[in-house]
Amino acid sequence: xxxxxxxxxxxxxxxxxxxxxxxxxxxxxxxxxxxxxxxxxxxxxxxxxxxxxxxxxxxxxxxxxxxxxxxxxxxxxxxxxxxxxxxxxxxxxxxxxxxxxxxxxxxxxxxxxxxxxxxxxxxxx
Amino acid sequence: xxxxxxxxxxxxxxxxxxxxxxxxxxxxxxxxxxxxxxxxxxxxxxxxxxxxxxxxxxxxxxxxxxxxxxxxxxxxxxxxxxxxxxxxxxxxxxxxxxxxxxxxxxxxxxxxxxxxxxxxxxxxxxxxxxxxxxxxxxxxxxxxxxxxxxxxxxxxxxxxxxxxxxxxxxxxxxxxxxxxxxxxxxxxxxxxxxxxxxxxxxxxxxxxxxxxxxxxxxxxxxxxxxxxxxxxxxxxxxxxxxxxxxxxxxxxxxxxxxxxxxxxxxxxxxxxxxxxxxxxxxxxxxxxxxxxxxxxxxxxxxxxxxxxxxxxxxxxxxxxxxxxxxxxxxxxxxxxxxxxxxxxxxxxxxxxxxxxxxxxxxxxxxxx
Lengths: 125, 368
Fold this sequence. Notes:
Low-confidence stretches of chain A: none
Oligomer: heterodimer
Distance between the termini of chain B: 33 Å
CATH superfamily of chain A: RNA polymerase II/Efflux pump adaptor protein, barrel-sandwich hybrid domain
CATH architecture of chain A: Beta Barrel
Radius of gyration of chain A: 13 Å
Strand content of chain B: 25-35%
Largest interface: A-B, 16 and 17 residues
Largest sheet of chain A: 6 strands, antiparallel
Structural class of chain B: alpha+beta
Helix content of chain A: 10-25%
């Protein structure tokens, strides 16, 4: 998974050509606890880099979701409506959230695996 | 701080979070699975973070009777009672359980986050010849809760059939000396087990080993909060605090105004006379709308109160919440509007508790 990049707000993005797939990290799902519900946008909407595109609700709290990249949403993971727990069980696979068509380049401040690991180690006490 | 079971929580994959100054497991595997285990088989909780005090002496009963709202004098040895401790203005300092061991010896269990506050308050009022010793660190506490807990006690344990709800006995669990109490915070039948800290790990292991094939799981704070909320058991700091009085919290049944003078009595007599200004109600919402602590509750555009606790109940299949609202503003069946992430969501006022588990007693009123 060398091509996966991360944000400090715990989203991940994997880019294949002009298509980016976005989700939340394993660390994020473990911090949230059992996910109950996701409020997600419809395909077609444009999002800016770092724009809020939805909300993930766990038993503990509601958290905003931020887009790591700028793009136009081409797909939303429909399975999450009926099985939000996919976020917990497979955050990098079946628990993906959005697919976007990139409208710009990748932000320079996205983290690689090692960089993101430092962020999670700092926030885990 | 860490309980004597900390290493076991980590080994079981527990996700540790701070709770009242203690590193406690939020969950081990999944809050949903742990919640269902408690409702359908049994769950094992570490509650060693709660404060445990031994109050002893010829005047111990009079001392507790003077500080607490419930009638401690009416409690026989071997029985426990749920009670509140109030300030002179009637605000709730804490909710606690008092276990009467003998005529002159009581075990008092208080909330973890309130231990320092409670002991300071109690010490100010402590008379001569009554001792109060904090045993939180040397006496561990685990809660084995669920409809099958009684049949899944480990081998070499004392019989529990004779222990009534809110009763307790000294005995053995998995060959280890324990105080076995038929109490809990989930709405289910089950036991709270007081065991010396250096031996509690063996009891924990034996219960999990015995229950392994029967659906018993270690359960964390997430499942504890969900089960207590379904049973409408109040959480101090969320549903009540020093600005809330017992009648507002729906706990008037713990206030015995017929007792001789006790802390807060004069203020509580007045509240009882005039009726409480606010009341705690149950709310139910659609799955996408989870009311959270602090959210506004409104009727016809007018704010009537605030959500005190809210979560999604996996077991009931919808979110549930408690809200402190203006007295007489709402009735069961009414529809209100609750703020969910800045938008208005409909909620129905429902009867409490949301769920009645296997905990049963002919003698002790349910806490609703």
